[in-house]
Automatic annotation (TrEMBL):
Compartments where located: Secreted
GO aspect biological process, one term: maintenance of synapse structure
Highest taxon above the source species: Eukaryota
Classification of source organism: Eukaryota, Metazoa, Chordata, Craniata, Vertebrata
An annotated GO cellular component: extracellular region
Name this protein carries in UniProt: Cerebellin 2 precursor
Originating species: Apteryx owenii (Little spotted kiwi)
Domain C1q: from-to ranges: 57-193
Keyword terms: Disulfide bond, Glycoprotein, Secreted, Signal
One Pfam family hit: C1q
Primary location group: secreted
Amino acid sequence: APLRECEALPGASGRVCVCVCNDTEPIVLEGKCLVVCDSSPSADGAITSSLGISVRSGSAKVAFSATRSTNHEPSEMSNRTMTIYFDQVLVNIGNHFDLASSIFVAPRKGIYSFSFHVVKVYNRQTIQVSLMQNGYPVISAFAGDQDVTREAASNGVLLHMEREDKVHLKLERGNLMGGWKYSTFSGFLVFPL
């Protein structure tokens, strides 16, 4: 249960709930931590309470986009976990994508959009790439045409995620040895729940 305290705000009729909630990011106003418990977020991330107070929370913005700037060179770790690693972040609003592990961790409950584009070149093997949520495959994509020199496995999805859920890409089949740069992995919070 969240810790709650109530305090009167100047000019407000009644009392406003000030609390720390497990699934709600606190908003700092004039040095105080405030979450209006009977509020609802709007589409643009603003929070409007029943008192008509509207506050825009910067933590409502979550987005990342990562790419490979070099050819994929499998490491001992990538061979063991089959995680597809990225080495350059283009966007990381909220810092919820960890470049070292190439894992995105949801900062809050909500609907998230993810897309990926994994390129293979000069590789006659079929590859299968899966987007993993908490260790389970959610969607997959294949690239297996043996008559082309470059091909991409691409897909996208909307996911309902809880706070601390994790998402990453896994190579389920084939290998990316010599796989070309320009592979991308992106995601963003569509709206919080």
